[in-house]
Amino acid sequence: TTQNFIDNVEGNITVSGGPMGSQTVFGLKSFVANRYAYLQTAVCSNLGIEEESTTEIQIYPNPFNESFVINSDFISLELIDATGRKIDFSTTAKNGKTEILVNAKAGNYFLNVVKNQGNYKVTLVKN
After folding, report:
1. For the chain, what percentages of helix, strand and coil (3-state, to nearest 5) are there?
2. What is the C-alpha separation between 18 and 11, in angstroms, rounded?
3. pLDDT at 65
4. Are strands 89-94 and 59-60 parallel, antiparallel or unpaired?
5. How confident is the model at residue 117, as a pLDDT?
6. How far apart are CA 31 and CA 13, in angstroms?
7. What rounded mean pLDDT belongs to the chain?
8. 115: which residues sit within 8 A by CB, 6+ positions away?
9. Would the pLDDT of 109 be above 80?
10. Cα-atom radius of gyration of the chain, to the nearest Å?
């Protein structure tokens, strides 16, 4: 299958059998062009995690130093560190944007954003 994937630069191939049944596998060109959407779908479906697209929210900068901005309305936020511990933060809202000030050490964090349209999960890096 790997060789078919590499050889099949222009199109897609169908792989049959196995526990998942028949599946379409992207050819190399298609995979490279669509790698983000393909990997996001593959990782989320394999882990059983339904991760929503973040196109409705803008969060910047990422990585951040002391604070980051969310350019969207939300109902609630939860910031979690890599060990699963909730991290305290403060917010300041102005002109439809919310600045989030994080007093924690450098590392990877997971931001859960609850909106009327659904839940969003974003990975953030603090310098």
Report:
1. 20, 40, 40
2. 22
3. 97
4. unpaired
5. 85
6. 12
7. 74
8. 56, 57, 72, 73, 74, 75
9. yes
10. 19
